[in-house]
Amino acid sequence: MTKDFRLILGLEIHLHVKTAKKMFCNCSADIYSAEPNTHVCPTCLGLPGALPVPNKHAVELTQLLGIALGCTLNLDSRFDRKHYFYHDLPKGYQLSQYDQPLCVGGSLKLRNGKTIELERIHLEEDTAKSFHSKDDTLIDFNKSGMPLIEVVTKPVITSAEDAAEFGRMLRDLARFLNISDADMEKGQMRVEPNISVRTVEMERANELPEYKVEVKNINSFKYMEKAIRYEVKRQTEILIGGKMPAQENRGYDEKADATLPQRSKEDAHDYRYFPDPDIPPMRFDQAYFDGLKSSMPELPGAAYLRLTSVLGLSAVAAEMLTSGPGLGLLQKFNDLSQVADPVKVANLLLNKPGYRDLEKDEFLQKMQSDESTIDDADIILATVKNVIAQNNKAVEDYRSGKDSAIQYLVGQVMRETKGKANPGLSEELILKELMS
Ligand SMILES: [Zn+2]
Protein backbone atom coordinates (compact mmCIF):
# COMPACT_ATOMS: atom_id res chain seq x y z
CA MET A 1 0.00 0.00 0.00
CA THR A 2 1.25 3.49 -0.81
CA LYS A 3 2.08 5.77 2.07
CA ASP A 4 0.63 8.85 0.39
CA PHE A 5 -2.79 9.61 1.87
CA ARG A 6 -5.15 12.46 1.02
CA LEU A 7 -7.85 14.17 3.04
CA ILE A 8 -11.48 14.01 1.96
CA LEU A 9 -14.23 15.60 4.03
CA GLY A 10 -17.81 16.77 4.13
CA LEU A 11 -19.22 19.40 6.48
CA GLU A 12 -22.34 19.57 8.57
CA ILE A 13 -23.01 23.10 9.72
CA HIS A 14 -25.72 24.12 12.18
CA LEU A 15 -27.12 27.64 12.34
CA HIS A 16 -29.62 29.06 14.83
CA VAL A 17 -32.35 30.68 12.75
CA LYS A 18 -33.08 34.32 13.58
CA THR A 19 -36.76 34.13 14.48
CA ALA A 20 -38.74 35.72 17.30
CA LYS A 21 -40.09 32.38 18.58
CA LYS A 22 -38.69 28.87 18.94
CA MET A 23 -39.23 26.19 16.29
CA PHE A 24 -42.40 24.45 17.52
CA CYS A 25 -43.71 26.58 20.41
CA ASN A 26 -44.34 30.19 21.41
CA CYS A 27 -41.30 30.60 23.66
CA SER A 28 -39.10 33.59 22.84
CA ALA A 29 -35.99 32.65 20.88
CA ASP A 30 -34.01 35.46 22.51
CA ILE A 31 -32.24 33.07 24.87
CA TYR A 32 -28.62 34.15 24.74
CA SER A 33 -28.38 36.14 27.95
CA ALA A 34 -31.38 34.61 29.73
CA GLU A 35 -31.29 32.86 33.11
CA PRO A 36 -31.38 29.03 32.72
CA ASN A 37 -34.81 27.45 32.18
CA THR A 38 -36.70 30.74 31.81
CA HIS A 39 -37.69 30.26 28.12
CA VAL A 40 -39.55 26.98 28.45
CA CYS A 41 -43.05 25.53 28.01
CA PRO A 42 -44.59 22.02 27.86
CA THR A 43 -43.63 21.68 24.17
CA CYS A 44 -39.91 22.46 24.44
CA LEU A 45 -39.69 20.59 27.75
CA GLY A 46 -41.03 17.54 25.91
CA LEU A 47 -43.95 16.99 28.28
CA PRO A 48 -46.53 14.37 27.23
CA GLY A 49 -49.47 15.68 25.22
CA ALA A 50 -47.82 18.94 24.11
CA LEU A 51 -48.36 19.60 20.39
CA PRO A 52 -45.66 21.10 18.16
CA VAL A 53 -46.64 23.79 15.62
CA PRO A 54 -43.93 24.61 13.03
CA ASN A 55 -42.58 28.17 12.86
CA LYS A 56 -43.44 29.50 9.39
CA HIS A 57 -40.75 32.17 9.46
CA ALA A 58 -38.05 29.59 10.19
CA VAL A 59 -39.26 27.56 7.21
CA GLU A 60 -39.12 30.64 4.96
CA LEU A 61 -35.61 31.59 6.10
CA THR A 62 -34.36 28.05 5.45
CA GLN A 63 -35.81 28.17 1.95
CA LEU A 64 -34.27 31.61 1.40
CA LEU A 65 -30.84 30.18 2.24
CA GLY A 66 -31.60 27.33 -0.17
CA ILE A 67 -32.35 29.80 -2.97
CA ALA A 68 -29.16 31.75 -2.24
CA LEU A 69 -27.14 28.51 -2.52
CA GLY A 70 -28.85 27.35 -5.72
CA CYS A 71 -30.68 24.42 -4.10
CA THR A 72 -33.80 22.76 -5.43
CA LEU A 73 -36.67 23.53 -3.07
CA ASN A 74 -38.90 20.55 -2.41
CA LEU A 75 -42.59 21.12 -3.14
CA ASP A 76 -43.37 18.50 -0.48
CA SER A 77 -41.51 18.44 2.78
CA ARG A 78 -42.13 17.21 6.30
CA PHE A 79 -40.73 16.75 9.80
CA ASP A 80 -39.56 13.37 11.07
CA ARG A 81 -38.72 12.02 14.48
CA LYS A 82 -35.06 11.11 14.94
CA HIS A 83 -34.78 8.83 17.95
CA TYR A 84 -31.93 8.61 20.34
CA PHE A 85 -31.58 8.59 24.09
CA TYR A 86 -29.78 11.42 25.81
CA HIS A 87 -30.61 13.61 28.79
CA ASP A 88 -30.69 16.83 26.74
CA LEU A 89 -33.51 15.37 24.61
CA PRO A 90 -36.52 14.86 26.91
CA LYS A 91 -38.90 13.49 24.24
CA GLY A 92 -36.49 10.71 23.31
CA TYR A 93 -36.49 12.04 19.74
CA GLN A 94 -35.51 15.19 17.93
CA LEU A 95 -37.83 16.77 15.37
CA SER A 96 -35.74 16.91 12.23
CA GLN A 97 -36.14 16.13 8.52
CA TYR A 98 -35.17 12.86 6.90
CA ASP A 99 -36.00 12.01 3.28
CA GLN A 100 -37.97 15.15 2.40
CA PRO A 101 -35.82 18.07 3.54
CA LEU A 102 -36.77 21.63 2.56
CA CYS A 103 -33.83 21.99 0.14
CA VAL A 104 -31.65 19.57 -1.82
CA GLY A 105 -28.52 20.02 -3.95
CA GLY A 106 -27.01 23.45 -4.50
CA SER A 107 -23.44 24.64 -4.14
CA LEU A 108 -21.18 27.42 -2.91
CA LYS A 109 -18.29 28.74 -4.96
CA LEU A 110 -15.23 29.55 -2.85
CA ARG A 111 -13.16 32.64 -3.62
CA ASN A 112 -10.34 30.42 -4.86
CA GLY A 113 -12.70 29.21 -7.61
CA LYS A 114 -13.47 25.75 -6.17
CA THR A 115 -17.13 24.77 -6.05
CA ILE A 116 -18.38 22.93 -2.96
CA GLU A 117 -21.52 20.94 -3.73
CA LEU A 118 -24.24 20.55 -1.16
CA GLU A 119 -26.20 17.46 -0.26
CA ARG A 120 -29.15 19.19 1.42
CA ILE A 121 -30.38 21.86 3.80
CA HIS A 122 -32.94 20.91 6.41
CA LEU A 123 -34.62 22.42 9.44
CA GLU A 124 -34.78 20.88 12.91
CA GLU A 125 -34.98 21.73 16.60
CA ASP A 126 -31.96 22.19 18.82
CA THR A 127 -31.52 20.15 22.00
CA ALA A 128 -31.16 21.42 25.57
CA LYS A 129 -27.75 22.22 26.99
CA SER A 130 -26.11 20.17 29.70
CA PHE A 131 -23.45 21.16 32.19
CA HIS A 132 -21.42 18.39 33.75
CA SER A 133 -19.79 18.75 37.13
CA LYS A 134 -18.11 16.09 39.27
CA ASP A 135 -21.29 14.71 40.79
CA ASP A 136 -24.13 16.16 38.74
CA THR A 137 -25.37 16.98 35.30
CA LEU A 138 -27.43 20.18 35.13
CA ILE A 139 -29.69 20.91 32.16
CA ASP A 140 -30.80 24.27 30.77
CA PHE A 141 -33.82 23.89 28.48
CA ASN A 142 -33.69 27.41 27.01
CA LYS A 143 -31.91 26.06 23.92
CA SER A 144 -34.33 23.13 23.60
CA GLY A 145 -36.56 23.67 20.58
CA MET A 146 -34.52 26.53 19.07
CA PRO A 147 -34.88 26.53 15.27
CA LEU A 148 -31.77 25.07 13.71
CA ILE A 149 -30.77 24.95 10.05
CA GLU A 150 -28.42 22.15 9.07
CA VAL A 151 -26.38 22.56 5.89
CA VAL A 152 -24.75 19.33 4.68
CA THR A 153 -22.07 19.37 1.98
CA LYS A 154 -21.09 16.42 -0.17
CA PRO A 155 -17.76 14.80 0.75
CA VAL A 156 -15.84 16.93 -1.73
CA ILE A 157 -13.60 19.13 0.42
CA THR A 158 -9.89 18.33 0.19
CA SER A 159 -8.18 20.80 2.52
CA ALA A 160 -8.64 22.28 5.99
CA GLU A 161 -8.35 25.78 4.49
CA ASP A 162 -11.21 25.15 2.06
CA ALA A 163 -13.37 23.82 4.90
CA ALA A 164 -12.76 27.01 6.89
CA GLU A 165 -13.36 29.21 3.83
CA PHE A 166 -16.68 27.44 3.20
CA GLY A 167 -17.67 28.04 6.82
CA ARG A 168 -16.77 31.73 6.70
CA MET A 169 -18.62 32.32 3.43
CA LEU A 170 -21.71 30.52 4.73
CA ARG A 171 -21.57 32.61 7.92
CA ASP A 172 -21.29 35.84 5.91
CA LEU A 173 -24.20 34.81 3.68
CA ALA A 174 -26.45 33.86 6.62
CA ARG A 175 -25.73 37.21 8.29
CA PHE A 176 -26.19 39.19 5.08
CA LEU A 177 -29.61 37.63 4.47
CA ASN A 178 -30.56 38.08 8.15
CA ILE A 179 -31.11 34.32 8.45
CA SER A 180 -28.81 33.90 11.45
CA ASP A 181 -26.45 36.01 13.55
CA ALA A 182 -24.11 33.02 13.28
CA ASP A 183 -22.10 34.05 16.34
CA MET A 184 -19.96 31.00 17.05
CA GLU A 185 -19.16 32.07 20.60
CA LYS A 186 -22.88 32.09 21.42
CA GLY A 187 -23.37 28.65 19.86
CA GLN A 188 -25.40 30.14 16.99
CA MET A 189 -23.15 28.40 14.48
CA ARG A 190 -21.43 25.02 14.99
CA VAL A 191 -19.36 23.08 12.51
CA GLU A 192 -18.86 19.33 12.28
CA PRO A 193 -16.36 17.98 9.76
CA ASN A 194 -16.71 14.34 8.63
CA ILE A 195 -13.12 13.41 8.03
CA SER A 196 -11.49 10.49 6.19
CA VAL A 197 -8.21 9.96 4.42
CA ARG A 198 -7.74 7.83 1.31
CA THR A 199 -4.98 6.72 -0.98
CA VAL A 200 -4.03 8.67 -4.08
CA GLU A 201 -5.36 5.73 -6.14
CA MET A 202 -8.73 6.01 -4.44
CA GLU A 203 -8.74 9.75 -5.02
CA ARG A 204 -8.09 9.24 -8.74
CA ALA A 205 -10.89 6.67 -8.95
CA ASN A 206 -13.15 9.04 -7.01
CA GLU A 207 -13.65 6.33 -4.41
CA LEU A 208 -14.72 7.14 -0.84
CA PRO A 209 -13.22 5.42 2.22
CA GLU A 210 -15.31 2.88 4.16
CA TYR A 211 -15.19 4.92 7.35
CA LYS A 212 -15.52 8.50 8.47
CA VAL A 213 -14.81 10.30 11.71
CA GLU A 214 -17.14 13.10 12.72
CA VAL A 215 -15.70 15.78 14.99
CA LYS A 216 -18.71 17.23 16.82
CA ASN A 217 -19.73 20.77 17.72
CA ILE A 218 -16.67 22.86 16.92
CA ASN A 219 -17.22 26.54 17.66
CA SER A 220 -14.35 28.19 15.78
CA PHE A 221 -12.97 27.89 12.27
CA LYS A 222 -9.44 27.92 13.64
CA TYR A 223 -10.19 24.92 15.87
CA MET A 224 -11.87 23.17 12.95
CA GLU A 225 -8.70 23.51 10.88
CA LYS A 226 -6.63 22.17 13.78
CA ALA A 227 -9.01 19.25 14.36
CA ILE A 228 -8.87 18.32 10.67
CA ARG A 229 -5.07 18.41 10.62
CA TYR A 230 -4.91 16.32 13.79
CA GLU A 231 -7.31 13.73 12.32
CA VAL A 232 -5.39 13.48 9.04
CA LYS A 233 -2.24 12.66 10.97
CA ARG A 234 -3.98 10.21 13.35
CA GLN A 235 -5.91 8.37 10.63
CA THR A 236 -2.90 8.19 8.32
CA GLU A 237 -0.83 6.57 11.07
CA ILE A 238 -3.55 3.95 11.68
CA LEU A 239 -3.78 3.16 7.96
CA ILE A 240 -0.02 2.91 7.61
CA GLY A 241 -0.11 0.43 10.50
CA GLY A 242 -2.39 -1.72 8.36
CA LYS A 243 -5.61 -1.03 10.31
CA MET A 244 -8.83 0.82 9.54
CA PRO A 245 -9.74 3.87 11.69
CA ALA A 246 -12.95 3.30 13.66
CA GLN A 247 -16.12 5.00 12.46
CA GLU A 248 -16.86 7.24 15.43
CA ASN A 249 -17.70 10.65 16.81
CA ARG A 250 -14.91 12.59 18.40
CA GLY A 251 -14.64 15.96 20.14
CA TYR A 252 -11.87 18.51 19.73
CA ASP A 253 -10.00 19.45 22.91
CA GLU A 254 -8.39 22.83 22.26
CA LYS A 255 -6.06 22.65 25.29
CA ALA A 256 -4.60 19.33 24.17
CA ASP A 257 -4.93 20.26 20.47
CA ALA A 258 -6.27 16.75 19.93
CA THR A 259 -9.53 14.96 19.19
CA LEU A 260 -10.93 12.47 21.69
CA PRO A 261 -13.47 9.67 21.09
CA GLN A 262 -17.16 10.14 21.98
CA ARG A 263 -19.99 7.61 21.50
CA SER A 264 -19.71 5.48 18.36
CA LYS A 265 -21.56 6.90 15.39
CA GLU A 266 -24.95 5.40 14.68
CA ASP A 267 -26.01 4.47 11.19
CA ALA A 268 -29.08 6.27 9.91
CA HIS A 269 -31.35 3.27 10.58
CA ASP A 270 -30.45 3.27 14.27
CA TYR A 271 -32.27 6.57 14.62
CA ARG A 272 -35.54 4.86 13.58
CA TYR A 273 -36.72 7.91 11.65
CA PHE A 274 -40.42 8.16 10.97
CA PRO A 275 -42.77 11.03 10.03
CA ASP A 276 -44.02 13.00 13.00
CA PRO A 277 -47.73 12.17 13.24
CA ASP A 278 -48.54 15.46 15.04
CA ILE A 279 -47.26 17.76 12.27
CA PRO A 280 -49.05 17.73 8.90
CA PRO A 281 -46.77 17.44 5.85
CA MET A 282 -45.86 20.77 4.23
CA ARG A 283 -46.85 21.49 0.63
CA PHE A 284 -45.55 24.54 -1.22
CA ASP A 285 -46.22 25.85 -4.73
CA GLN A 286 -44.14 27.52 -7.38
CA ALA A 287 -45.81 30.93 -6.91
CA TYR A 288 -44.69 30.91 -3.27
CA PHE A 289 -41.12 30.01 -4.28
CA ASP A 290 -41.17 32.76 -6.94
CA GLY A 291 -42.23 35.28 -4.29
CA LEU A 292 -39.31 34.25 -2.08
CA LYS A 293 -36.91 34.49 -5.02
CA SER A 294 -38.07 37.99 -5.90
CA SER A 295 -37.41 39.14 -2.32
CA MET A 296 -33.77 38.04 -2.60
CA PRO A 297 -31.25 40.91 -2.66
CA GLU A 298 -28.14 40.81 -4.83
CA LEU A 299 -25.83 38.22 -3.25
CA PRO A 300 -22.24 38.97 -2.18
CA GLY A 301 -20.70 36.92 -5.03
CA ALA A 302 -22.69 38.78 -7.69
CA ALA A 303 -22.02 42.11 -5.96
CA TYR A 304 -18.27 41.40 -6.07
CA LEU A 305 -18.41 40.91 -9.83
CA ARG A 306 -20.46 44.09 -10.36
CA LEU A 307 -18.18 46.17 -8.13
CA THR A 308 -15.03 45.07 -9.94
CA SER A 309 -16.20 44.80 -13.54
CA VAL A 310 -18.94 47.48 -13.78
CA LEU A 311 -17.99 50.04 -11.15
CA GLY A 312 -14.22 49.76 -11.48
CA LEU A 313 -13.37 49.04 -7.83
CA SER A 314 -10.10 47.32 -7.03
CA ALA A 315 -10.32 43.61 -6.15
CA VAL A 316 -9.27 44.45 -2.59
CA ALA A 317 -11.99 47.10 -2.09
CA ALA A 318 -14.65 44.87 -3.67
CA GLU A 319 -13.60 41.95 -1.49
CA MET A 320 -13.80 44.12 1.64
CA LEU A 321 -17.30 45.30 0.78
CA THR A 322 -18.63 41.81 -0.02
CA SER A 323 -17.25 39.66 2.81
CA GLY A 324 -16.85 39.65 6.58
CA PRO A 325 -17.80 42.80 8.51
CA GLY A 326 -17.57 44.95 5.35
CA LEU A 327 -20.79 43.32 4.10
CA GLY A 328 -22.61 45.55 6.56
CA LEU A 329 -21.49 48.53 4.46
CA LEU A 330 -22.60 47.14 1.09
CA GLN A 331 -26.10 48.60 1.14
CA LYS A 332 -24.75 52.03 2.08
CA PHE A 333 -22.18 51.77 -0.70
CA ASN A 334 -24.91 50.83 -3.19
CA ASP A 335 -27.02 53.86 -2.21
CA LEU A 336 -24.12 56.31 -2.35
CA SER A 337 -22.52 54.98 -5.52
CA GLN A 338 -25.74 55.85 -7.40
CA VAL A 339 -25.06 59.54 -6.85
CA ALA A 340 -21.30 59.81 -6.35
CA ASP A 341 -18.10 58.34 -7.78
CA PRO A 342 -18.12 54.66 -6.66
CA VAL A 343 -14.34 54.43 -6.28
CA LYS A 344 -14.26 57.53 -4.05
CA VAL A 345 -17.26 56.33 -2.04
CA ALA A 346 -15.62 52.93 -1.45
CA ASN A 347 -12.38 54.56 -0.39
CA LEU A 348 -14.12 56.86 2.10
CA LEU A 349 -16.28 54.06 3.54
CA LEU A 350 -13.41 51.63 3.93
CA ASN A 351 -10.43 53.82 4.74
CA LYS A 352 -11.46 57.21 6.13
CA PRO A 353 -12.55 57.47 9.73
CA GLY A 354 -15.76 59.35 10.39
CA TYR A 355 -17.63 58.39 7.23
CA ARG A 356 -19.15 54.98 7.99
CA ASP A 357 -21.76 56.15 10.45
CA LEU A 358 -23.01 59.12 8.44
CA GLU A 359 -26.43 59.23 6.78
CA LYS A 360 -26.48 59.56 3.02
CA ASP A 361 -26.89 63.37 2.92
CA GLU A 362 -24.29 64.01 5.63
CA PHE A 363 -21.89 61.68 3.85
CA LEU A 364 -22.24 63.55 0.56
CA GLN A 365 -21.85 66.94 2.27
CA LYS A 366 -18.73 65.87 4.12
CA MET A 367 -17.34 64.34 0.97
CA GLN A 368 -17.84 67.63 -0.89
CA SER A 369 -16.34 69.84 1.79
CA ASP A 370 -13.39 67.47 2.37
CA GLU A 371 -12.73 67.38 -1.33
CA SER A 372 -12.44 71.15 -1.52
CA THR A 373 -10.25 71.44 1.59
CA ILE A 374 -6.59 72.13 0.88
CA ASP A 375 -4.57 69.61 2.89
CA ASP A 376 -1.34 70.09 1.01
CA ALA A 377 1.24 71.60 3.40
CA ASP A 378 3.39 73.05 0.59
CA ILE A 379 0.49 75.00 -0.90
CA ILE A 380 -0.64 76.32 2.48
CA LEU A 381 2.94 77.20 3.50
CA ALA A 382 3.30 79.58 0.57
CA THR A 383 0.20 81.47 1.72
CA VAL A 384 1.38 81.36 5.34
CA LYS A 385 4.70 83.00 4.39
CA ASN A 386 2.83 85.73 2.51
CA VAL A 387 0.46 86.39 5.39
CA ILE A 388 3.33 86.61 7.89
CA ALA A 389 5.24 89.01 5.65
CA GLN A 390 2.19 91.29 5.28
CA ASN A 391 1.07 91.31 8.94
CA ASN A 392 3.98 92.64 10.98
CA LYS A 393 1.69 94.00 13.67
CA ALA A 394 0.08 90.62 14.40
CA VAL A 395 3.47 88.91 14.35
CA GLU A 396 4.81 91.39 16.88
CA ASP A 397 1.71 90.97 19.04
CA TYR A 398 2.28 87.22 19.10
CA ARG A 399 5.95 87.62 19.97
CA SER A 400 5.04 89.92 22.85
CA GLY A 401 2.83 87.20 24.30
CA LYS A 402 -0.56 87.83 22.71
CA ASP A 403 -1.58 84.31 21.77
CA SER A 404 -4.82 85.42 20.12
CA ALA A 405 -2.77 87.01 17.33
CA ILE A 406 -2.38 83.48 15.92
CA GLN A 407 -6.12 83.27 15.30
CA TYR A 408 -5.94 86.53 13.39
CA LEU A 409 -3.17 85.12 11.16
CA VAL A 410 -5.12 81.86 10.59
CA GLY A 411 -8.08 84.02 9.58
CA GLN A 412 -5.90 85.81 7.04
CA VAL A 413 -4.75 82.48 5.56
CA MET A 414 -8.38 81.38 5.29
CA ARG A 415 -9.25 84.67 3.59
CA GLU A 416 -6.41 84.31 1.09
CA THR A 417 -7.44 80.71 0.23
CA LYS A 418 -11.17 81.55 0.10
CA GLY A 419 -11.80 79.35 3.16
CA LYS A 420 -10.29 76.21 1.67
CA ALA A 421 -7.11 75.81 3.70
CA ASN A 422 -7.23 73.21 6.46
CA PRO A 423 -7.38 75.51 9.55
CA GLY A 424 -5.55 73.12 11.90
CA LEU A 425 -2.73 72.64 9.48
CA SER A 426 -2.56 76.39 8.79
CA GLU A 427 -2.15 77.16 12.50
CA GLU A 428 0.54 74.50 12.83
CA LEU A 429 2.47 75.95 9.90
CA ILE A 430 2.17 79.55 11.16
CA LEU A 431 3.55 78.53 14.57
CA LYS A 432 6.41 76.67 12.95
CA GLU A 433 7.26 79.70 10.77
CA LEU A 434 7.17 82.10 13.71
CA MET A 435 9.49 79.93 15.75
CA SER A 436 12.04 79.44 13.01
ZN1 LIG B 1 -41.40 26.38 24.46
UniProtKB/TrEMBL annotation:
Q: Output the GO biological process annotations, alphabetical, semicolon-separated.
A: glutaminyl-tRNAGln biosynthesis via transamidation; translation
Tell me the ranges covered by the Asn/Gln amidotransferase domain, including all copies. Answer: 331-434
Matching entries from Gene3D superfamilies are given as: 1.10.10.410
Q: What Pfam families does the database record attribute to this sequence?
A: GatB_N, GatB_Yqey
UniProt superkingdom: Bacteria
The family assignment reads:
Belongs to the GatB/GatE family. GatB subfamily.
Instruction: Identify the keywords attached in UniProt to this record, alphabetized.
Output: ATP-binding, Ligase, Nucleotide-binding, Protein biosynthesis
* Bilayer-spanning residue ranges: none
Q: Which InterPro entries match?
A: Asn/Gln-tRNA_amidoTrfase_suB/E (IPR017959), Asn/Gln-tRNA_Trfase_suB/E_cat (IPR006075), Asn/Gln_amidotransferase (IPR018027), Asn/Gln_tRNA_amidoTrase-B-like (IPR003789), GatB (IPR004413), GatB_Yqey_C_2 (IPR023168), Gln_synth/guanido_kin_cat_dom (IPR014746)
Q: Name one GO molecular function term.
A: ATP binding
What is the name of this protein? Aspartyl/glutamyl-tRNA(Asn/Gln) amidotransferase subunit B
The record's EC number reads: 6.3.5.-
Give the catalysed reaction(s), semicolon-separated.
L-aspartyl-tRNA(Asn) + L-glutamine + ATP + H2O = L-asparaginyl-tRNA(Asn) + L-glutamate + ADP + phosphate + 2 H(+); L-glutamyl-tRNA(Gln) + L-glutamine + ATP + H2O = L-glutaminyl-tRNA(Gln) + L-glutamate + ADP + phosphate + H(+)
This protein's record includes keyword rRNA processing: no
**Gene designation per UniProt:** gatB
Q: How does it assemble?
A: Heterotrimer of A, B and C subunits.
The protein's role, per its UniProt record: Allows the formation of correctly charged Asn-tRNA(Asn) or Gln-tRNA(Gln) through the transamidation of misacylated Asp-tRNA(Asn) or Glu-tRNA(Gln) in organisms which lack either or both of asparaginyl-tRNA or glutaminyl-tRNA synthetases. The reaction takes place in the presence of glutamine and ATP through an activated phospho-Asp-tRNA(Asn) or phospho-Glu-tRNA(Gln).
